Amino acid sequence: MTRLFMQSNTPERIGHVTLTHPDRIVLRPPKTTKSDLAHYYEAIAPHMLEHLKGRRIAMLRCPDGADEDCFFQKHLTGDLPSGLTRDAGHLQIQSTEGLLALVQLGVIEFHTWGAHAPQHDNPDRVTLDLDPGPDISWRGLIEATQLAHGLMTEVGLAPFLKTTGGKGLHLVAPIRATRSWETVRILAHHLAQRLANAMPDRFTANMAKDQRRGRIFVDYLRNGNGSTAICAYSVRARPEAPVSMPLPWTALDFHNDLRAAAFNVRNALDHVQTHADPWPDYAARRTVLTQRMLDRLGL
């Protein structure tokens, strides 16, 4: 993204949305304005909406920028801007206009539920969030990610890879929406515990901070009812404005650390435009969690 922020604080029209305070600094360093953020989301929307439409969202709002108070929110009161709808009180984004309307309200991050309308009681993905301790190298994280990929594949899942815009990686396996939240949460916990039991020097399924030193926490809690995970292509409210990027498995390279701001609001769009769809067969790879599969896992 080569566009730099404007020098005027006059409201700016982006698509059908009027952006107030467009040159307010919302992220730093480097200085990233509300206008920069809105233009990024406008440009990335055709790709991001594939991951947003039909899903309830949570959002991180920083009305005065990430240097000031930020808060998570799942609901909006009053009349909704165009492009947004409610589902049992929860927000859903239906269009680029809705995405930009939330940026106008100070939203920086977008997080999505693990279920898709209309089957909100039945998740359609299993997410393992590999959260490394501060002393874990990129090589160590890649090796752990490959081990987690192997386990998920062994039990019949088809995991896809995504950066988080932080220090970890997500493995996202699409499933048919036929099982309850509790069943899917137990499955994810089982996978996390199997990794921790098999390689306790490398993995932990315990979220306690003192258990993560020198190890990777396999966070299975993204799979509970109401829990969310950062949406693909969402910016994070952190220095360097990192972006969560879906990737092919071939992108994992010991010599190219893809964590944190390797993808950011300034280069993410160029990456998307110059690389093939990283998840072209995502929908086709949905796994049916059969009773036989669950019985074999002891669930």
Automatic annotation (TrEMBL):
Residues 33-279 form the DNA ligase D polymerase domain. InterPro entries: LigD_pol_dom, NHEJ_LigD. NCBIfam families: ligD_pol (TIGR02778). It comes from Bordetella genomosp. 4. This is DNA ligase D polymerase domain-containing protein.
